[in-house]
Design a protein that fits this description.
Elements (H helix, E strand, L loop, with lengths): L1 E4 L1 H20 L2 H28 L4 E8 L3 E2 L3 E10 L2 H8 L1 E7 L1 H4 L7 E4 L3 E9 L4 E13 L5 E7 L3 E6 L10 H4 L4 H4 L11 E3 L11 H7 L3 E3 L9 E6 L4 H20 L4 E6 L7 H5 L11 H9 L10 H18 L5 E6 L4 H10 L4 E8 L4 H16 L3 E6 L4 H11 L2
Parallel strand pairs: 3-10, 13-14, 13-15, 15-16, 16-17
Antiparallel strand pairs: 1-9, 2-4, 4-7, 5-8, 6-7, 8-9, 8-10, 11-12
Helix pairs in contact: 1-2, 8-10, 11-12
């Protein structure tokens, strides 16, 4: 709680002090009385405010905050509604004299004051205002700041009501065209080590991680001694792992995450089981979930599947050094190598790699269909040369590769990668 005199309060105090000094100097009892009276007004109001707050505190008022939509994508607007409800007579009396303002992280306000609309009723006040998100992450909103002025307008009290909220901001994504089923549909049986089916089992294939258990053909599975599933367009969709690094520059990291998330959503919308793998340690409340990227998300789970993928990006942070970024990428590639499903597609969004990084990704491509977007920042000629070298090494290892520059259109990068697969 902060209390301070208003301009009127300072004026009364100053006038009272002058009148008191003049009365003492001139020996005028009336001026002394006027000075004491003028000084007494702000002092009494100040003491009264302290006493009333000690008795009433913050009781009688409840604050509820709602953000729509939440989560929201970076660069989009969200509407915030704050309801202040009086629960008793004292609360209604307090509510009538309050002025409201909100606090928000600069990533939500852009560093500008929030312009709100306030609607009042006897027992209820509503504050509405828009926020424009600028960066991915979890950003604080609130608590509500309330200002009250006493009856004489000489003392202003300022305090907070309610709790702080968090707004989850997903990365900016774009709708990418679905890849061709010829490229990513039913894998060839030789590559997957599938059994050659008999005439009776012509529409069956071996079970692969990510397949819907409802498509298991239990009778044939029991006869063969291994799980077989019905082979149709959806059952045969390969699982997809989207791997991306977390470079040191924030702008590069955000562009990389946006591209990786957009690719993951495009693959998910095409019917593929998808997992999103970040090469770096996340921080924050979603850290444990982000580390557990070994499980696939399925399109049949509905809107929750998109949210599950995007939630993994909320707490990712750029690497502190290039060495840390390289080590994190190697760790992620090793984890991917040990947990990948047979015949899956691995889509990597990475920058220039060291020989160790190139070798690790090349090894992943031995048992998976590898696609890669190799990123260059475009700031130095050496960076472009290193990116070109990485792309060349991956192509020679059987990867389909497209090169890109940080900040480039995500859709153009994706189309270039699809074109390289033809």
């Amino acid at each position: 709680m902060r209390r301070r005199p208003t301009a009127r309060g300072w004026a009364l105090a100053a006038a009272g002090a002058v009148a008191l000094q003049a009365g003492i100097g001139l020996g005028s009892l009336d001026l002394v009385r006027i000075g004491i009276l003028l000084l007494a007004v702000p002092v009494t109001a100040f003491v009264a405010e302290i006493a009333l707050d000690a008795v009433r505190g913050r009781r009688g008022l409840e604050v509820r905050r709602e953000v729509t939509p939440d989560p929201v994508h970076a660069g989009q607007d969200a509407d915030v509604r704050v309801d202040i409800v009086a629960t008793d007579r004292a609360g209604r009396a307090r509510l009538a004299g309050l002025r409201f303002s909100e606090q928000a992280a600069v990533e939500l306000s852009g560093g500008r004051a929030l312009r709100a609309r306030v609607a009042r009723r006897a027992d209820h006040a509503t504050v509405r205002y828009p926020v424009r998100t600028s960066e991915r992450g979890r950003w604080p909103l609130g608590p509500l700041v309330v200002t009250r002025t006493d009856t004489f307008g000489v003392v202003r009290s300022r305090t907070t009501l309610g709790a702080e909220s968090q707004v989850a901001v997903w990365p900016a994504v774009v709708a990418l065209p679905a890849p061709s089923d010829v490229l990513v549909g039913e894998p060839d049986r030789v590559a997957l080590g599938a059994r050659t089916p008999s005439t009776d089992d012509a529409n069956l294939r071996d079970y692969r991680e990510g397949d819907d258990l409802r498509r298991v053909h239990w009778r044939s599975s029991a006869r063969r001694g291994t799980m077989l599933v019905r082979s149709d367009e959806r059952a045969g969709m390969r699982p997809v792992s989207v791997l991306h690094d977390l470079p040191v520059r924030t702008a590069t990291t955000e562009w990389t995450i946006s591209l990786a998330a957009s690719i993951a959503l495009a693959m998910l919308d095409s019917g593929h089981p998808v997992r999103l793998a970040a090469a770096g340690p996340p921080v924050g409340p979603g850290a444990d979930a982000a580390r557990g990227w070994g499980s696939y998300v399925h399109a049949r789970q509905g809107p929750e599947s998109r949210a599950a993928l995007l939630d993994l990006t909320l707490d990712l942070v750029p690497a502190r050094t290039s060495t840390e970024a390289e080590v994190a990428l190697l760790d992620a590639v090793r984890m991917l190598d040990t947990s990948q499903a047979a015949g899956e597609i691995v889509v990597a969004v990475v920058g220039p790699l060291s020989p160790a990084g190139c070798g690790a990704l090349a090894h992943v491509g031995d048992s998976a269909q590898g696609w890669a977007v190799v990123r260059a920042d475009g700031r130095h000629a050496s960076d472009a040369r290193d990116a070109q070298h990485t792309a060349t090494v991956l192509r020679r290892s059987g990867w389909r590769v497209a090169q890109a520059t940080t900040g480039e259109s995500l859709a153009e990068c994706w189309l270039r990668l699809l074109g390289s697969a033809r």
